[in-house]
Write a structure and sequence with these properties.
Layout lengths: L1 H8 L1 H16 L5 H5 L3 E4 L3 E7 L2 E3 L6 E4 L1 H19 L10 E7 L4 H8 L30 E5 L4 H11 L6 E3 L16 E3 L4 H14 L4 E7 L2 H17 L3 E8 L7 H9 L7 E5 L2 H13 L7 E4 L14 H4 L3 E5 L14 H29 L15 H10 L2 E2 L5 E2 L11 E7 L7 E8 L3 E3 L26 E6 L2 E9 L4 E3 L5 E3 L4 E3 L6 E3 L2 E2 L6 H26 L4 H5 L2 H22 L4 H36 L11 H25 L4 E4 L13 E5 L3 H24 L10 H23 L7 H24 L1 H9 L1 H6 L5 H13 L4 H7 L11
Parallel strand pairs: 2-5, 2-6, 6-7, 7-8, 9-10, 9-11, 11-12, 12-13, 25-27
Antiparallel strand pairs: 1-5, 3-4, 13-16, 14-15, 16-17, 17-18, 19-20, 21-22, 23-24, 26-27
Length: 845
C-alpha cells in the first residue's frame, strides 16, 4: 500500500523526467548506441532486466507504431522505473547491487515486439568479427551488449506468446504483469514464462461462479478475435461444460478489423436467443464500446446483462456515453490495492493503480529471486560474485517460482508449478442509482471460491430483482421436463395428466388404483369413498315408492286379518294371499337395504332378501295359477278333483319353490362370504378431481342376475299359466288379474335389463343401477298388489253387502257348472273325451 501511494505522489515529477528520456530515445540526434535500439530506454546497473511495454498503440497503413498510450504504456513503464528506484535504495533487498534495465516499446504489435526482443539475446549470440577491419586496417573495438538476465513483460498475451518462444531458446526468464491467456500456463511450451496475474482460466472459473450465483443457465459469449478473447471464451465454455448446468446459446466473435454494421449484426444475432440475456464478454475496450453503442442504437437498453472480463474491469472508457446500456454490468479484475470507494470513479484512478501494481510486483518478484539466489551463491559477498556472472537462467527460474512475499496490494506474490499467480479477483458492478456517484462498486471477491453480495447488486432502473437468463423457466408443480435434444438447459414442460403425478423432475407415474393425484400433482392422495346417501336424489324416489308400497301392503294385510273369515278373503285363498303379501312387503323392504350403508350384515341380508321377495311373490302366484289351471283342466275330464289343491298342499308347493332360492343363497354364502369392497373403477372419470371410490357389497352384476334369474323363471312360468287360464270364467278365479299382472311385470323387467346394463360407462353407475333395480321391483310389486288385492279391499271396506252375498266357489260347484253346461250339448260324452267341454259361468250365483 505504501509503495503504490508513494508512486502516486511522485507521479508528476517523474513524468517530466520520463518524457525527457523518451524524447532523447526517439530523437534523431541521440547517440549511436541509442540509434541501434530505437524506442528504448537504457538504465545502467550491475544486473540488467529487460522490459516490454506498449508505449505506443498499433500503427496503421504500414506504420508500426501509432499514438502514445498513457495508461497502459507510460504509466506501466514509469512503474517499473519507480520499482527499480525503490529496490536500489532498499538496503535489505539486493544490497550493494544495482539493478539496471533495458526497456523496449512493443507498439502493441506481436511481430514488432519480436523484433525488439532480439535485443535481449544479442549478448548470448556469438559473433565472428575476425574478418572485420577498420579503414586503417586495425581491429575494431565492438561494444559488447549488456546481458539481460530476465524480462518484465509483456502486456498483451499475443505479444508475450511471441516473445516467450524466443526467450525460452536462450533460457531467459520472463515475468508478465498483464498477460492472462490460459495457453501460457502450458509448462511444456512456455516453461520460462511466469506472471503475477492469474490466467484467464481462473477468471473464467470466477465468471462461471458468478453466472451460477445469479441463477443463470443460458448465456451467450462474445469474444474479440485473437488470443485473449478466444482463449478466454474457450476457457469459460470448457469450465461451464465440466461444471454442468450451464449452456451456451451463442458464441460470437468480433473480427480484428470489423466492417461497418458488424456490431449491429452481432446484436441482431444475440437477439435470436432473447432468453439468453446474460452475455459473457472477453473483448478489447474499443470492441466493448462499440457493442454497447450497437445495443443502444437498436433500442435494447436493459435487454442484455454483461459479465465482463478484466479487459473491461473498472474502466470508464468502454462505457463512456453508454452508461444506460452498461448499467448492471458485472466485471472482474485481479485483486489490487485497497482504495476507498470514492476513488473508484470516472477518472479510472483505481484501474491505473491496478495496472502499475502488477508491474511493481513483477519487478519485485525478479528482485527477490535474484536476492535469494545471491544469498545462496554469494554468501557474504559484496556485489555480484563470479557464480552469478553470468546469471544462469534456469537456476534463476527456480528461484522465481520459489518467491513468496507481500506485494504492493498487501497480498502474497507467489507462483505455482506453471508460473501462474493465484486467482484473486475483485468483482464490480456498474451502478447508476442509489450511489453518491454513478460508477463501479465492489460487490464481491473471488479467491478459489466466490463471495458475492447479491443484496448490494442493482440492475436497470435500480431494481434489486436479478434478471433471468435461462433457456427454459422452471416447470410448475405437476409438470415434468422434456429435454431438448442436445441442449441440456432447455426443456419443454409437460403436464402430468390423468391420474399421473410428478415422480421426479423428468418423470410422471400413475397413482395407485385407490389414490388420485393432489391438486399440484406432486404426490398422490387417497380417493374419497362415497356411498348412496339417504338424501341423494337417486334414493328419494325409490324410498318414496317403497314407503307407499309398504303402507299399501300393510293396509291390505290388516284388512285381510280383520276380515279373515269373510267369503271374499276365503275366496282369494287367504293362506297363499298372506304368503304373496309377505313377498310383496319384502320387495318394498329391500329398497331400504339397498340404500343402507354397506356392511357385512347388510350385504348378507341383501343377498338373502333381494331374490327372496320376488321368489315368494311369484311362487305364490305360480301356485295360484297352476291350481286354477289344473282344476278346470281336470273338470273337463272328470268329476274327480286334482291332487294337491288344498290350502296345505298349496303352501307346501309354495315353500318348496321358495326353498330352492333359499338354498341357492346359502350356497352362495358358503362359496363367497358376504363382505364389502370399495370399487374405484366405476367412478373414475378423466378428471381425477371427480374420482370416487364407491363402498358397496361384493355383488357383481352377473351374480345379481343369477340371484334374480330363479325369480324371473318363476315369473315367466307364472305368465305361461296365466295365458293358459285366460279362458276360465272370471267369476270363478283370479286368472285374468294375475295374467294382467304378469304381462305388466314382464314389460317392467324387460325395460329393467337394458337400463341396468346400459349404465356401464356412467360415472354414477352404482346409484343408477340401484335406483333402477329398486324401482323395477317396486313397480312389479305395486302391479301385483294393485291388480290382486286393492279391488278386494275396496269391496270389503266400501261394499260390505257384497262381502256377505259372495261365497266361495268349491270344486264341486265348478264341476256342477261344467256338467250342466255339458248336458246342453248333444254330444256331451264325446266332447268330454275330446277335452272340448266349455264351462259357462253360473250367472245365478
Amino acid at each position: 500500500m505504501f509503495r503504490v501511494l508513494s508512486w502516486s505522489s511522485c507521479h508528476s515529477t517523474t513524468w517530466l523526467r520520463l518524457l525527457t528520456i523518451l524524447w532523447v530515445g526517439l530523437s534523431p540526434c541521440s547517440s549511436v548506441h541509442q540509434h541501434s535500439h530505437p524506442h528504448s530506454i537504457k538504465i545502467p546497473g550491475d544486473i540488467t532486466l529487460g522490459g516490454l511495454f506498449p508505449v505506443h498503440a498499433r500503427g496503421h497503413a504500414g506504420v508500426p507504431c501509432g499514438e502514445i498510450k498513457k495508461e497502459k504504456g507510460i504509466h506501466r513503464l514509469e512503474a517499473m522505473m519507480y520499482a527499480l528506484d525503490q529496490i536500489n535504495s532498499d538496503p535489505e533487498l539486493l544490497p550493494n547491487i544495482t539493478l539496471g534495465a533495458r526497456i523496449l516499446d512493443t507498439c502493441s504489435r506481436d511481430t514488432y515486439a519480436l523484433e525488439q526482443s532480439l535485443t535481449f539475446v544479442q549478448a548470448l549470440i556469438q559473433k565472428d568479427t575476425s574478418d572485420i577491419r577498420c579503414s586503417n586496417g586495425e581491429q575494431p573495438i565492438i561494444r559488447k551488449p549488456e546481458r539481460v538476465v530476465g524480462v518484465i513483460g509483456a502486456s498483451g498475451s499475443s505479444v508475450s506468446i511471441m516473445v516467450a518462444n524466443v526467450l525460452r531458446l536462450f533460457e531467459i526468464p520472463q515475468i508478465s504483469y498483464a498477460s492472462t491467456a490460459p495457453e501460457l500456463s502450458d509448462n511444456n511450451r512456455y516453461d520460462f514464462f511466469s506472471r503475477v496475474v492469474p490466467p484467464d482460466s481462473y477468471q473464467a472459473q470466477a465468471m462461471v461462479d458468478i453466472v451460477k450465483a445469479l441463477g443463470w443457465n443460458y448465456v451467450s459469449t462474445l469474444a474479440s478475435e485473437g488470443n485473449y478473447g478466444e482463449s478466454g471464451v474457450d476457457a469459460f465454455v470448457q469450465i461451464s461444460r465440466e461444471a454442468g448446468g450451464l449452456c451456451i446459446a451463442q458464441s460470437l466473435k468480433i473480427p480484428r478489423e470489423p466492417k461497418p454494421g458488424e456490431f449491429d449484426k452481432i446484436i441482431k444475432r444475440l437477439m435470436e436467443t432473447p432468453n439468453a440475456r446474460g452475455v459473457i464478454i472477453f473483448a478489447h475496450e474499443d470492441d466493448i464500446k462499440q457493442v454497447l453503442e450497437a445495443a443502444k442504437k437498436s433500442n435494447l437498453t436493459g435487454q442484455f446483462k454483461f459479465v465482463g472480463s478484466d479487459s473491461w474491469g473498472a474502466k470508464s472508457s468502454p462505457i463512456l456515453d453508454q452508461e444506460e446500456v452498461a448499467e448492471g454490468a458485472v466485471t472482474i479484475l485481479p485483486k489490487r490495492a485497497s482504495i476507498d470507494e470514492e476513488r473508484i470513479s470516472r477518472d479510472s484512478h483505481y484501474e491505473q493503480e491496478g495496472k502499475v501494481q502488477f508491474v511493481i510486483d513483477a519487478v519485485y518478484a525478479m528482485a527477490h529471486a535474484l536476492h535469494n539466489m545471491h544469498q545462496d551463491l554469494c554468501p557474504g559477498a559484496m556485489g555480484v560474485c563470479d557464480k552469478m556472472d553470468p546469471v544462469e537462467g534456469r537456476l534463476l527460474l527456480s528461484y522465481i517460482h520459489s518467491v513468496n512475499f507481500n506485494g504492493s496490494a498487501g497480498t502474497a506474490v507467489l507462483f505455482n508449478e506453471n508460473g501462474d499467480a493465484p486467482g484473486r479477483y475483485d468483482i464490480f458492478q456498474y451502478q447508476m442509482t442509489n450511489t453518491s456517484n454513478p460508477g463501479y462498486r465492489v460487490i464481491g471477491q473471488w479467491t478459489n471460491n466466490l463471495r458475492l453480495n447479491v443484496e448490494e447488486m442493482q440492475w436497470t432502473g435500480g431494481s434489486r430483482q436479478i434478471p433471468d437468463s435461462v433457456c427454459s423457466f422452471p416447470c410448475r408443480s405437476g409438470e415434468r421436463k422434456k429435454m431438448v435434444k442436445g441442449v441440456p438447459c432447455c426443456w419443454h414442460c409437460e403436464l402430468c395428466d390423468g391420474y399421473q403425478f410428478q415422480a421426479d423432475e423428468f418423470n410422471c407415474e400413475m397413482c395407485p388404483f385407490d389414490m388420485r393425484p393432489t391438486l399440484n400433482r406432486t404426490a398422490c392422495r387417497p380417493t374419497p369413498i362415497i356411498k348412496l346417501e339417504w338424501h341423494s336424489p337417486w334414493a328419494v324416489i325409490p324410498l318414496f315408492l317403497a314407503i307407499l308400497g309398504i303402507l299399501a301392503t300393510l293396509s291390505v294385510i290388516i284388512t285381510f286379518i280383520r276380515f279373515n273369515d269373510t267369503p271374499i278373503v276365503r275366496a282369494a285363498g287367504r293362506e297363499l294371499s298372506y304368503v304373496l303379501l309377505t313377498g310383496i312387503f319384502l320387495i318394498y323392504f329391500i329398497t331400504f337395504l339397498m340404500i343402507a350403508e354397506p356392511g357385512t350384515v347388510v350385504c348378507a341380508f341383501r343377498r338373502l332378501l333381494l331374490g327372496l321377495g320376488m321368489c315368494i311373490t311369484y311362487s305364490a302366484m305360480l301356485t295360484k295359477t297352476n291350481r286354477i289351471y289344473r282344476i278346470f283342466e281336470q273338470g273337463k275330464k272328470s268329476v274327480t278333483p286334482p291332487k294337491f289343491i288344498s290350502p296345505t298342499s298349496q303352501l307346501m308347493i309354495t315353500f318348496i319353490l321358495i326353498s330352492v332360492q333359499v338354498v341357492g343363497v346359502f350356497i352362495w354364502f358358503g362359496v363367497m362370504p358376504p363382505h364389502t369392497i370399495v370399487d374405484y373403477d366405476e367412478q373414475r372419470p378423466p378428471n381425477p378431481e371427480l374420482a370416487r371410490g364407491i363402498l358397496k357389497c361384493d355383488i357383481a352384476d352377473l351374480s345379481l342376475i343369477c340371484c334374480l334369474s330363479y325369480s324371473i323363471l318363476l315369473m315367466v312360468t307364472c305368465t305361461v299359466y296365466a295365458v293358459k287360464s285366460r279362458g276360465v270364467p272370471e267369476t270363478f278365479n283370479e286368472a285374468k288379474p294375475i295374467g294382467f299382472t304378469m304381462y305388466t311385470t314382464c314389460i317392467v323387467w324387460l325395460a329393467f335389463v337394458p337400463i341396468f346394463f346400459g349404465t356401464a360407462q356412467s360415472t354414477e353407475k352404482m346409484f343408477i343401477q340401484t335406483t333402477t333395480l329398486t324401482v323395477s321391483m317396486s313397480l312389479s310389486a305395486s302391479v301385483s298388489l294393485g291388480m290382486l288385492y286393492i279391488p278386494k279391499v275396496y269391496v270389503i271396506i266400501l261394499h260390505p253387502e257384497q262381502n256377505v252375498q259372495k261365497r266361495k266357489r268349491s270344486f264341486k260347484a265348478v264341476v256342477q257348472a261344467a256338467t250342466m253346461s255339458s248336458r246342453l250339448s248333444q254330444k256331451s260324452i264325446n266332447d268330454k273325451q275330446n277335452g272340448e267341454t266349455k264351462i259357462e259361468p253360473d250367472r245365478t250365483q
